[in-house]
Amino acid sequence: MEPDQPFIPVAPATADALESARRMTQARRKKTKTPWWPKAILGIVVVFIVWWYGLVYLHWSSRFVQVVTSVIPFPAVVLNGESITYHAVLEKMALLLWLAQKQNEGTRLPDNDELLSKALHALLQERAIAQLADEEDLAVTRDELQAARMNQQGSLSDKEFETQLQTSLGVDLNTFLNKILRPYLLAQKFEAHVLASSTDQSAVRTLAEQAQIRISAGQLFGTILEQAQHSAFKVDGGDQGYVSASTLPEGWSALLSMRENSTSPVIETTDTFVILAVEDVIGTGVDAQFHTKAIVFHKRGVDEVVKEYLDQSTLKEIIKRVE
């Protein structure tokens, strides 16, 4: 029988020894732990590759492209530091295609390049108007948006109206209110501001006033009209024939007090400046007929103001076409 192994006592670990062991273990873990940033970079690269694959090889209307661009707000165009995202462009293209399919059944539909061009033009117009309106402290209030919505909805219930939006435009209520109706109302408000603005219309008014001075000095009405038509502004008019007192165009009420061979001062209407000349008057009161000539100076519209603004803006087009 073998003798028992001798008993060797082991001293209990001291607090210092345990702390030392813990520190050594933590240090060893730190040395072997993988840094976080390579994983982050790899993730970004993978997302970028997937995103780029979707944009290049998949159709712009595919669900994949729609989802990825809605998550990653990649800019398609940057106007004065404000970006228009690729997703916004795709949404506008989808709306334009839907409308084209509704309105042009049986005819050729616009291709990708046409849709992209129209979408970018529409979005740039909207963004430029929004920036210009902001400079003038113009905005669409919640009450104005709600009133316009109810005007569009009429007697339909909320559910019926949403169904109609899906059928006619292919959009939900929120998209209709914020992407279609609100920009439309803001454009209307900005247009009214431009037409009433003495600053925006000063050059056209000056042209009209100079023409009126020349007419008063005895120069021929037709000659002045012809020369004005060669200006930088839209000018038309000429012989209007006999104009009835009961069916006067907007702003032409000055005719009622005019006599034969007389000329009006410059008359401002909503969207024009007008000079009227009366050659003959037949009848009186509501039955009166005025043989009238007119020079009509059209005010600068929103399109002209926006084009001028865009020409002077910082515009960076990141995406120019869709494959």
Report on this structure:
The chain has about 325 residues and is an alpha+beta fold. It has a domain at about 200-300. Helices cover about 55% and strands about 15% of the residues. It has 11 helices and 8 strands. It has helices spanning about 15-30, 35-55, 65-70, 85-105, 110-135, 140-155, 160-170, 175-195, 200-215, 220-230, 300-310; strands at about 75-80, 80-85, 235-245, 260-265, 265-270, 270-280, 290-300, 315. The strands form 2 sheets. Strands 3, 4, 5, 6 and 7 form a 5-stranded antiparallel β-sheet that branches. A hairpin with a 6-residue loop joins strand 6 and strand 7. The chain is elongated, with a radius of gyration of 36 Å. The termini are far apart.
The tally of beta strands, per DSSP, is 8
| Termini gap | 91 Å
Average residue pLDDT: 83
Topology as a string of helices (H) and strands (E): HHHEEHHHHHHHEEEEEHE
What is the secondary structure topology, with strand pairs?
Elements: H1 15-32, H2 36-57, H3 63-71, E1 75-79, E2 82-85, H4 86-103, H5 112-135, H6 142-153, H7 158-168, H8 173-196, H9 202-216, H10 221-228, E3 235-244, E4 262-263, E5 267-268, E6 272-282, E7 289-298, H11 302-311, E8 315-317
Antiparallel strand pairs: 1-2, 1-8, 3-7, 4-6, 5-6, 6-7
Helix pairs in contact: 4-5, 5-8, 5-11, 6-8, 9-10
